[in-house]
Amino acid sequence: MIALRSVLFNIAFYINLIARMILLSPYYFLAERKKAWSVPKNWVRANHWLQARIVGTTFEIEGLENIPDTGYIFAPKHQSFWDAYALLPWLDDPFYILKRELMWIPLFGQYVSKMKMIPVNRGARGKVMAEVLERTKEEIRNGRQLIIYPEGTRRAAGAPPDYKYGIARLYRDLDVPVVPVVMHPGLFWPRRKFLRYPGHFKVQILPPIPAGMDPDRFMDRLIEVMETASDKLLVETVAANPQLPLRADARRRLKELGALPSDPRLQ
């Protein structure tokens, strides 16, 4: 049944994407930029509805009051394709620094260009990176939210942390707060897997780390805050969803935390 529901959801997911891009592109490209955000944000809401109805996966968000009113860095855990889009409706005017190759994808590239995302050649140095930083500062000054994944790429739930120092450099250069976010969607939508699992999980938006700290101290604090909250939430999520199959990283971390030792999935 899980496999069938996963197939149906994946089909519905892409039909939802393609149909909206075809039908709503005229409005999207003609509308003022911030109004055009309604198109991708409503697409996200529709995906949440589809996932809840077809798969049975639901979520809740805690800590929305921790989101600042001015520009900031939004720093979520990254485990799944889900968290690449899922929180957009709760952010006013977010943007990414992304690989320039993504801008070359037909239609998708035009969509992200409309939202003034910042493309970058990952091998670039010197002047090019300075220009990227200046563009980023300009967007932040306009009150936008830069989304940065502190570990750079998707990590399985419970995997050893692998934070990249790049976020500390941006924190220093942009001089704005960083809002850490922890969640475990990878337990329900695993990376590189087509299966989608039912259940309920939380997204926790943690209190912002204020601007102005030494970058090394900031990095230590970010890791401590995120990993402490992530471990606690992992234990809570697994306990609340006993039906979930657990992959090796999650089993290992739960054992290290001494959580649920009688659970046969942890043996």
Automatic annotation (TrEMBL):
Keyword line: Acyltransferase, Membrane, Transferase, Transmembrane, Transmembrane helix
Q: Which domain of life is it from?
A: Bacteria
- What sequence ranges are listed for the domain Phospholipid/glycerol acyltransferase? 72-186
Family matches, as Pfam families:
Acyltransferase
Q: Does the keyword RNA-binding apply?
A: no
Q: Name one GO molecular function term.
A: acyltransferase activity
Q: Which InterPro entries match?
A: Plipid/glycerol_acylTrfase
Q: What is this protein called?
A: 1-acyl-sn-glycerol-3-phosphate acyltransferase
Q: Which organism is it from?
A: Hoeflea alexandrii
**Lineage, broadest ranks:** Bacteria, Pseudomonadati, Pseudomonadota, Alphaproteobacteria, Hyphomicrobiales
